[in-house]
Design a protein that fits this description.
CATH class of the largest domain: Alpha Beta
Number of strands: 16
Strand order of the largest sheet: 1-5-6-11-10-9-7-8
Shape: elongated
Radius of gyration: 28 Å
Number of domains: 2
Distance between the termini: 43 Å
Strand content: 15-25%
Low-confidence stretches: none
Length: 419
RNA sequence: GUGGAUGUAGCUCAGUCGGUUAGAGCACCAGGUUGUGGCCCUGGGGGUCGGGGGUUCGAGUCCCCUCAUUCACCCCA
């Protein structure tokens, strides 16, 4: 078949068994978040463009990579490129600052960014994320780190290492920023092309350049500029997380892409994904709610890309399979098979049956590719109120009562019958 | 946005120097066995060789453009 109707660039069709792994991970993430007291939140796939524009003035994600459109009513809308701004908007709009604090929210949602696709980078990807509002104390940062790592640990990655840093607050960051700019100005003209641009547009990004590392070595240390409160906050985060046995270390060069981060930022990577590709990351955003017309409420959160996480997990998280059954029939017995199949399903047992009026041989071939147990309906057994149960893996088969309750019981306890 | 690689069946790939009707394996369907899957045998369906243009008597093959995939950079999940 030839068609021009292909999926848009950078998107993907997810088929079994991959789609089953995703669903399994989604449930695991959902469970874990609930375990920490977080409630699910769903926000629209698109927002007024202003929501993202306000929040990410200088970031590539909202500056160059937005899927934006004007609807028939003239409203400027943008497909959600990231979760935090949307959730913060919902926090304000729904008056959650009047709810008992802290407010703990999590989401599982598609994100849209018009980037050039490459390994594990898509124009539509899925993020599991959580946001915690209303706590300025370092324990909130620590709880977010615990939740995010708990998810990957439960999924099968044993010892994630959190790399963390503090970007300081509105009191101490400006001083550092100008010291950094002043230092790098001395190397103007000797830097890589990207760094020349960073120097003007986003100086903090100079810190994670992979080329000009020698220049970076002599750059001023961010931690020397932290105000006492920021210092105490960061040390407390390290202490609280470390106390639980999680691995956390300071990465003095870690900065992150969104403007709204204050103080804590963190990332977790994975060796199998290459050095630059973060599994997930997050941080604190104490000014964000206010920026979105809300009261002065602090917040902290993370976002985790499910595609990257599933890739890092590899076979550690496999598609769950539960034994299933298939009702095959002899010519003329499709009606009876139909009823047997449904009687099993209403008893909670997975079951399918042939819809194509195929030969028994074809049905068995089909069944052997799909399920572990096949029931054969028809002929002499059926006349005696019986049917055949066959285990397609072992080849063993028995004739049993065709009463639906009996059949269900046999399937549940088939091990005991030596099938 | 920048740079590289690759596009032939559902999948993985052959296809010689430009030459007849484009092949294989796997997968799918049917039959061999009108009551038994997997192994085996036989047969079948499925391709405008990514698309467009050009060179040529003749293009899957050579040239140009384009689209897509993929990898890296930027950035990010």
């Amino acid at each position: 078949m030839r068609t021009e109707l292909k999926r848009p660039r950078g998107t993907q069709d997810l088929l079994a068994p991959e789609s089953l792994r995703v669903e399994r991970f989604r449930r695991l993430a959902f469970d874990t978040a609930r375990h920490y007291g977080f409630d699910p939140i769903e926000t629209p796939a698109f927002e007024q463009s202003a929501v993202f524009l306000k929040v990410g003035e200088s970031t590539d994600v909202v500056q160059h990579e937005r899927y934006a459109f004007t609807d028939a009513g003239g409203v400027e809308l943008t497909l959600r490129p990231e979760g935090t701004a949307a959730v913060a908007r919902a926090y304000v709009e729904n008056g959650l600052y009047n709810a008992p604090q802290p407010v703990r929210l999590f989401y599982w949602a598609p994100m849209f960014r018009r980037e050039r696709p490459q390994a594990l980078r898509y124009r539509q990807h899925t993020q599991f994320g959580a946001e915690l509002f209303g706590v300025e104390d370092a324990s909130a940062d620590a709880e977010i780190m615990l939740l995010s790592t708990a998810v990957v640990i439960r999924a099968g990655l044993s010892h994630p290492v959190i790399r963390a840093n503090s970007l300081g607050c509105s009191l101490c960051r400006p001083a550092y920023r100008s010291a950094l700019v002043q230092y790098y100005e001395g190397f103007r003209g000797q830097l890589c092309q990207d760094c020349e641009r960073r120097l003007d547009q986003n100086p903090l990004r100079l810190l994670d350049c992979k080329v000009d590392q020698a220049v970076r070595e002599g750059s001023p240390d961010l931690s020397l500029f932290w105000c006492p409160e920021c210092r105490r906050h960061f040390e407390r985060v390290i202490e609280l997380v470390g106390a639980t046995g999680r691995l956390i270390e300071r990465d003095p060069h870690l900065v992150r892409g969104f403007d709204y981060y204050t103080r804590t930022v963190f990332e977790v990577g994975h060796p199998e994904l290459g050095n630059g590709t973060a599994l997930f990351g997050g941080g604190r955003y104490d000014g964000l709610v206010e920026l979105l017309d809300g009261p002065k409420v602090p917040g902290v959160g993370f976002g985790m890309g499910s595609e990257r996480l599933l890739a890092a997990l590899g076979t550690r998280l496999s598609a769950s399979s539960q034994p299933s059954s298939y009702v095959a029939y002899l010519p003329g017995f499709q009606g009876q098979a139909w009823i047997v199949a449904e009687s099993l399903r209403v008893r909670g047992l997975p079951c399918q049956t042939d819809l194509l009026q195929r030969s028994l041989k074809a049905q068995l071939r089909d069944a052997s590719r799909r399920v572990q147990y096949v029931l054969i309906v028809g002929g002499e057994e059926w006349a005696e109120g019986k049917l055949t149960v066959k285990n397609l893996e072992s080849g063993a088969q028995h004739v049993v009562s065709a009463d639906p309750d009996d059949v269900a019981q046999v399937l549940v306890h088939e091990g005991a019958l030596g099938l």
